[in-house]
Amino acid sequence: MKKLMVALGALAIALASTAASAQEKLIVSVWGGNWKDGAAIIAKEFTKRTGMEVEFITGGTLDRLAKAKVAKDNPESDVVYTTSHVGYLYQSDGLFEKLDKSKLTNFANLYPAADRGDYEVGVYSYVYSPVFRTDLMPKDFRITSWNDLWSDAVAGKLSMPDFDPSHIIVASSILAGGDAATWEKGVPLLEKLKPNIKAFYQSDATSQDLLKTGETPVQIMLSINAYHLIQNGVPITIEIPKEGAVVGIGALGINKGTKKLDAAHEFINVALDPVVQQEICDFHKCSPMNKDAKVSPELAKLPGIFTTPEQWSTQAIITPDEVQAKLLPTWKAWFTENMMQ
Amino acid sequence: MSKRPFLIPFLVPAILVAVIFLAALAEILQYSFREFIPGSLDVGGFTLDNFARIYRPVYFKAVVNTFVLSLATAFFTLILSYPIAFALVRTKVEWVRTLLILLSITPLFTGEIVRTYAWMLVLGTNGFLNTMLLDIGIISEPVTFMYTRAGVVIALVQFAMPVMIIILATAISHINTDYEKAAANLGARPWTVITRVVIPLTMPGIISGFIVIFAWTMSAFATPQLIGGGKVLMISNAIYLQGFSALNFPFAATLSVIALISAFASLALMKLIANRLERQTAIH
Predict the structure, then answer these.
(1) Cβ distance A110 to A312 under 8 Å?
(2) Are residues A136 and A115 in the same domain?
(3) Is B55 part of the contact surface with chain A (CB cutoff 8 Å)?
(4) Which pTM value belongs to this model?
(5) Which of A8, A91, A306, B223 is the S-S candidate for A311 at Cβ 3.0 to 4.6 Å?
(6) Which of A62, A209, A213 has the CB atom closest to B244's CB atom?
């Protein structure tokens, strides 16, 4: 019995020391894989500046959101890295702290697109845009407008994501003279697009497979995936239509109830630092939000990488997070019921 | 049980799991009657709208698809697995048995995703199957297997075969071979022995294999998701789309309830048919 008590005591001390060391760390919730590696760039600089270690907890977009909702007043992370419209769900459910922008000294240098309201801030952006296999499409085939996806040359060759139809819905609405909020204007066009759709993809992996194998030579694709395929020698072209490409924004917010509010603000501020922004974007091949970030010339020339205010104003289609968050379920339901059968 | 009271504590884990499972089911049930609030994770008050929405063609089709594809998968799995199971049990050549075990059972140890990806490479427009058929001149244009029900069934059948083979091999191994010899001695041809003796005697195995694969396929997710490419929706894919991309948990819960009811109803119907079949084919 005495031995048992000693062992239990040792275990309690070990657990207590683990808990104590966890208190010294800033906990950041982020996606796994490559995204965690990108966040590690911020963490490295943050630790250098503050001496505080960063620990990551990883998961998918929605399971992290669900966990945050369950944990609510006792968050398991201090900072959340997510997509900006999902960030809106965190804030609407009271899971984000209001940001004290006076602590974000880099905020003043950001493009307007980075301002995602009082509870989150954009760190980088990517686009969803039409991409095609140059070797599998006619030689003179080009996509200068979203309208080109309706052409006969694309019949039975197009793929797009099934988890988020917002890109084609917003693009169709714009073609019909509307915008995201008046998306119904694009419905007749969407219905006409059905014969051109061969498949829907569910993940980055299946998206890349569909193009790599030539199964669907035309795709509405995440720019980061398109660059990856180009880098691997797949003959594809990514086009930015004249109406613009649909922008997605990776954003940071602070968990409500965190005990490390100052450190969390500093983490976000570090993420917005021009040098860190440059490193993140060179790593992910995304657009920086800080106007002073100097990405490499090779990256800057890629379609969908925005490094000037003019590019932001002429090539980017940005949907407000609230509109996207509130309409996405309706879009999803409509898309499933009308386009996927 | 009363004579062995010491066994009662062994029931505790099972009861615990059952209670947790029932609690989860109750939660899904209550969610299915709640209103969805766009832009929020919270749910609203009581509503029957979610159930009314089931009748929209896409969801109704997903339920029908699930039933038809499960039935087709169970049927083709049975047809393809029976000869293999028979050969596995009856062969006297050790290396043939080993080879059959290797070919038929080992796929069980690779994950569903890995196998489905392999099928994507085989069934694609420029995949192995089309290339081979084109090369030998059977077809002049690639056949579309991907994103079709046929493609989904092909992959599901291969996925289900190892389990079916194990069930059938067990049933076949329990047949006393004297029955087959007696039938042959009385003049029955090999085919007659198989159809009139072996198959009726293995009917319980056939029925349980069919029901297991049918029930298993009803919850298939990754294969229809990847091979179907959103063009072939089964009920689990529809649930995923609603729950995890539209964040409409109440409607996803409603679809889950419908899936559960459909599964129980299908299995009850199948059991009824199976009992009748078993009585008809029984050898007295």
Answers:
(1) no
(2) no
(3) no
(4) 0.80
(5) A306
(6) A62
